[in-house]
């Protein structure tokens, strides 16, 4: 077992950006779809979430986080699950070429 003086220090600063998100304190249902949500209802919910993201001071940090950890659900950094998947596939394809 590592000695206490050899353990890494706290890393809360890595997550500090979340404290400044406009979504902080907002009902998470705006960003995460309920089971079975499709069509117009889903598009409208995603549009409202993305509008909030568009004005957010930590949009870039949020998007970077979601892409780096392959966040599987919700709107993060103004991107939906599908948009993140497309972005990652496109980026991988560009690297392969």
In words, what does this structure look like?
The protein is globular. The chain has 97 residues and is mainly alpha-helical. The mean pLDDT is 89. The longest helix has 16 residues. The protein contains three helices and no strands.
Topology record:
Blueprint: H1 39-54, H2 59-68, H3 81-96
Amino-to-carboxy terminus distance: 45 Å
How would you classify the helix and strand content by structural class? Answer: mainly alpha
Low-confidence stretches: none
Element-by-element helix/strand order = HHH
Q: Helicity level, as a percent range? A: 40-55%
SS element count, helices = 3
Radius of gyration: 17 Å
The best one-word shape is: globular
Mean pLDDT: 89
For the biggest sheet, the summary is: none
Strands, total number? 0
**Strand fraction band?**
under 5%
List descriptors.
single chain, 97 residues, mainly alpha, 3 helices, 0% strand, globular
TL;DR?
The chain is mainly α and 97 residues long. Helices cover 43% and strands 0% of the residues. It has a domain of 65 residues.
